[in-house]
Amino acid sequence: MTGAKSLLASISTTLLLGCSALSYQATSRHQALKEQIVGTWKYVSVDNIRPDGSRVPLFGPEPQGRVAFDRNGNYVLMTSRARQAKFASGDRNQGTDEEYKAIVQGSIAHFGRYEVDEAGRTITFHIETSTFPNWNGIDQKRPFSITEDELKWVTPSASSGGLAEVRLKRAQ
């Protein structure tokens, strides 16, 4: 009898977990896109897609960073290459030209407010401040797609030609 009880308990647990997962998926599909995007996301890839279709990782094969969206329409985004070299001096105000160049080319950050257009499936970043000052005070609209645990958007990549595709995974 114990084997049968154990098997029944195992089947019940599996069914309960399966129903919970289906319930979560059904709920997330019916939530507004703005609600689905809320939370913290970590980078999977940031690729430049050239006009010929080839891909180049803009922040290396393992980009680091987070993007956080709150319910009030605020966001913060920070992207960096993995394993950037430390400054030889140990002082961020005493870097060499090469060290400063590597940091600027290997990272981007900005924050501000965001809006989601449900019908157009776009997100607009109203950038207040960026580590790239040319973006301060501008809006950037990006088409996006979202599932329970993946967020993806595309943005024109004026600095390198083509498009940049950003893929993020919901942080646990």
Molecular structure report:
The chain is α+β, with helices and mostly antiparallel strands. It has helices at 2-30, 33-37, 97-105, and strands at residues 39-49, 55-57, 64-69, 74-80, 107-117, 122-130, 139-146, 150-156, 163-170. A hairpin with a 3-residue loop joins strand 7 (139-146) and strand 8 (150-156).
Gap from first CA to last CA: 39 Å
Q: Structural class of the helices, strands and pairings?
A: alpha+beta
Which of globular, elongated, flat, extended, rod-shaped describes the shape?
Answer: globular
Largest beta sheet: what is the strand line-up?
Answer: 1-3-4-5-6-7-8-9
Number of helices: 3
Main sheet specs: 8 strands, antiparallel, barrel
Q: Give helix and strand order, one letter per element, not per position.
A: HHEEEEHEEEEE
Mean pLDDT: 85
Helix content: 25-40%
DSSP summary, beta strand count: 9
Any idea what the radius of gyration is? 21 Å
Stretches where pLDDT is under 50 for at least 5 consecutive residues are: 6-27
Strand content: 35-45%
